[in-house]
Amino acid sequence: MLNRHLTNLTPHDINVRMANEDAFFTIAPTGVVARCDTEYNTVEQITAGGDVFNLRERYFNEPRNLPAPQENTLFIVSRIVAEAMANERDDLIFVDTTLRDEDNRIIGCEAFARWPHPSYRRGFVTVTASLTPEFWDEVKNGDASINDVEWEVEGDEE
Questions:
Q1: pLDDT surpasses 70 at 47
Q2: Angle subtended at Cα 109 by Cα 141 and Cα 39, rounded to the nearest 5 degrees
Q3: With 87 labelled, which of 2, 50, 114, 117 sits at a CA distance of 20 to 30 A?
Q4: CB of 41 closer than 8 Å to CB of 56
């Protein structure tokens, strides 16, 4: 297991249920949002049951606002940005295994994932940290930040 810093490059708070616990922690957005535009090209029209559907190829433009790789840092990005850079970057992760409330709204996730890349063997990432009640008191009082925690990443063999 490696210790990594997690940087949230989405516009949303990321609520993650800690491994083997019912507690959640929140990773706040940095204010920098990595985005990737897509372009489509219709390659075929498919007829099924009298209806016509387009079959399209999807192309990704170069993501914008994506920092260069940083040592011991994983960037939380949208699934589209991670997919666009899958063959080039192994430090981009996205929310996986979403958790929903009784109204089917997403309230968090259990883990992160990333697209297969030649530099690692497994694509599923479990993130954990040992956060004591005293630490949470410091966060509530403004004396500490959840963004300063060193997270342990399992499934990140190098």
A1: yes
A2: 115
A3: 2
A4: yes
Chain-centroid distance of CA 47 in Å reads 36
- Which amino acid, one-letter code, is at 145? S
CA nearest neighbour of 129 among 11, 32, 30, 27: 27
Ordered by start, the domain boundaries in the chain are: 2-154
**Collapsing DSSP states into helix, strand and coil, what is residue 50?**
coil
Beta bridge partners of 68: none
pTM of the model: 0.68
Q: Which residues contact 152 (CB under 8 A, 6 or more apart)?
A: 1, 2, 3, 4, 127, 128, 129
Backbone angles phi, psi at 147, to 5 degrees: -70, -10
DSSP H stretches of helix in the chain: 79-84, 133-140
Predicted confidence band of residue 49 (pLDDT cuts 50, 70, 90): confident
Please tell me the distance from the alpha carbon of residue 65 to that of residue 34, in angstroms, as a whole number. Answer: 5
Instruction: Report whether 62 contacts 76 (CB < 8 A).
Output: no
CA distances from 117 to 7, 37, 88, 120 (A): 20, 21, 8, 6
